[in-house]
Each structure stands twice: as structure tokens, then as C-alpha cells.
């Protein structure tokens, strides 16, 4: 029989180790709480209560734990309710209820938003709607005699069932297109971001937060395989010049994204159709801190 005392595992040391791990968990929880602050602000603005969000959070814990356990090849058994409950701290009866309840259909408006996103992506990648240099064309709203590519055709192909006028109105509201004076439509952004405090815009925000967080956490856990995530040092800007600086940031970032998107589209078109594909994206954002 092995003598645990001879290995230095004294009862007091074991208690100290448990205390240290507990303190680390609490510190991490407090840090995550700070990250959730803006989300809680949004919940308060929308009238979402703490118990309502706690129900959502429990469901997310159960879903993510089930995925994690199912991916663990060292475990022969499947992720059952008891194991998920032990991992998440959620009673197994609640785990069973969460896992057997079909999630309600998520936001029909979000599905419409995704159809808009498909149109914008096609505009930037389908050869019919590109210039000779691979850039998105300015499209006439409707094709004249002898003209093939038009915004109307783009809508028919990628937003089936939506009228051309409705598509223009929605995409303009999202800031994705610009309507030129000569009845031409210009692509401004390859992503659809609904404006205002709507269900679709909140869903879009949540996806962006998810993507950014996944990159930050990946870089923490995998220092040898970093995803790009960098920024410029904070500088103090005269309030009177802030609007001009914001325009400069937007213009230069847009030009950079346009050039990079063209290169990525070329890469996607040259790759084999049978090759395993990984979706790669890039988001640039700016932030401002008010004076203390």
C-alpha cells in the first residue's frame, strides 16, 4: 500500500490544494462576470430578468457539456444526464428536461436576415455579378435590353420570394448597399447587420460576440496556434476631431477588407470542390472610452 504521507499528500495540503482550485474558479467567474456586463445591460434595456437569463444559461451549459463529453474519445460511455449534471452543477432532472425539450424555432426574422447575407455573399463571389478584376459590380436595379446582370436577377436567385423593392429597402436599412442616382445599386458591405434594437440585430450582435470570444479563448488555450487578434494602442483624440478620425478608420478598414475579401474569394474559387473546407472570417471594430 502506498503511503500518501510519504508522497507529500498531507490532509492539510490536500485541503489547501482544493482551496486554491476553488479560488481560481471564483476568480475566473468574477472575470467572466465583468465580460457579461454589456450583455446584462442589454437584458435590462429589453426587460429580460435574471431568472429568464438563468434558464437560458442552464440550457447553454447543458448543451455545451453534452458536446464536450461526446467529443471525449477517452470515455466509452455517452454523455448521460447524470454525468452532465455533475459537470454543470445542474440537477439531472433539469438536465433531462432541457435535453428532451425541442428548442423553439429561433426568430423567423433572423432567417430573413440570413437570406440577405446569402445575397451579399453571392454578389461578392458569383462571377455573374463581378467585374473583370473580381470586384462586385454596380448593378442596375432592373436589366435593360441586352443587359444580363441586375440587382433584380440577384434577388430572384438568392432571396427567392422577396420583391426587389423590399430587398432594396431592407439592405439599405442594414447599411449593406447604396442606391446611386442613375438607378444603380452599389455593394457597401458583404455582411448584413440589421440596425436598431430588433430581434434580428440582437441575434447578429450575439453571433459577433460569439465569434470574437471563441478567437480570444482559442488564443488563451492554444498559444502555439494563434488566430489573428491585434489592435493599435489607445490614443487620446480631440473631441472636435473625433468624427473625422472615425471616418478615416472606417474608410481605411473598408478598403483593407475589400482587398482581403477579393483575395479570399480567389482562394476559395481555386480550391478543389472535394477538399475539406474551413470557414474563415475577419471582423474589424473600433471602440471608444469616455473620459473618466
Mean pLDDT level: 80
Gyration radius, rounded: 25 Å
Biggest sheet features? 3 strands, antiparallel
Uncertain stretches of 5 or more adjacent residues: 1-6, 105-112
Q: What is the global morphology?
A: globular
Strand proportion: under 5%
Relative helix content:
40-55%
In DSSP terms (H or I, runs of 4 or more residues), the helix count works out at 10
Structural class per helix/strand content?
A: mainly alpha
Count the domains: 2
What's the order of the H and E elements? HHHHHHEHHEEHH
Strand order of the largest sheet: 1-3-2
**How many β-strand runs?**
3
Q: Distance between the terminal alpha carbons, to the nearest Å?
A: 63 Å
Summarize the structure.
The protein is mainly α and 292 residues long.
Notes on the structure:
By secondary structure, this protein is mostly helical. It has two domains: 16-100, no CATH class; 109-232, no CATH class. The chain has ten helices and three strands, in the order ααααααβααββαα. A three-stranded antiparallel beta sheet has the order 1-3-2. The protein is globular and about 85 Å long.
Amino acid at each position: 500500500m502506498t503511503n500518501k504521507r510519504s508522497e507529500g499528500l498531507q490532509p492539510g495540503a490536500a485541503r489547501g490544494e482544493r482551496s486554491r482550485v476553488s479560488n481560481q474558479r471564483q476568480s475566473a467567474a468574477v472575470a467572466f462576470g465583468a465580460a457579461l456586463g454589456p450583455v446584462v445591460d442589454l437584458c435590462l434595456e429589453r426587460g429580460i430578468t435574471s431568472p429568464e437569463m438563468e434558464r437560458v444559461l442552464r440550457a447553454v451549459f447543458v448543451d455545451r457539456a453534452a458536446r464536450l463529453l461526446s467529443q471525449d474519445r477517452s470515455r466509452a460511455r455517452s454523455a448521460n444526464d447524470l454525468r452532465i449534471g455533475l459537470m454543470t452543477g445542474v440537477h439531472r432532472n433539469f438536465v433531462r428536461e432541457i435535453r428532451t425539450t425541442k428548442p423553439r424555432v429561433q426568430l423567423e426574422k433572423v432567417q430573413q436576415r440570413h437570406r440577405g447575407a446569402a445575397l451579399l455573399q453571392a454578389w461578392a463571389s458569383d462571377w455573374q455579378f463581378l467585374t473583370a478584376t473580381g470586384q462586385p459590380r454596380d448593378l442596375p436595379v432592373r436589366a435593360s435590353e441586352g443587359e444580363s446582370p441586375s440587382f433584380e436577377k440577384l434577388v430572384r436567385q438568392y432571396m427567392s420570394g422577396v420583391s426587389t423593392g423590399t430587398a432594396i429597402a431592407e439592405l439599405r436599412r442594414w447599411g449593406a448597399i447604396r442606391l446611386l442616382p442613375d438607378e444603380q445599386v452599389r455593394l457597401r458591405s458583404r455582411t448584413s447587420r440589421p440596425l436598431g434594437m430588433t430581434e434580428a440585430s440582437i441575434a447578429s450582435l450575439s453571433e459577433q460576440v460569439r465569434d470574437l470570444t471563441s478567437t480570444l479563448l482559442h488564443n488563451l488555450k492554444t498559444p502555439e496556434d494563434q488566430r489573428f487578434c491585434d489592435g493599435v494602442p489607445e490614443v487620446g483624440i480631440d473631441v472636435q476631431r473625433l468624427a473625422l478620425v472615425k471616418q478615416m478608420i472606417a474608410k481605411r478598414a473598408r478598403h483593407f477588407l475589400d482587398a482581403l475579401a477579393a483575395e479570399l474569394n480567389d482562394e476559395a474559387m481555386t480550391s478543389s470542390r472535394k477538399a475539406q473546407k474551413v470557414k474563415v472570417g475577419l471582423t474589424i471594430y473600433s471602440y471608444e472610452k469616455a473620459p473618466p
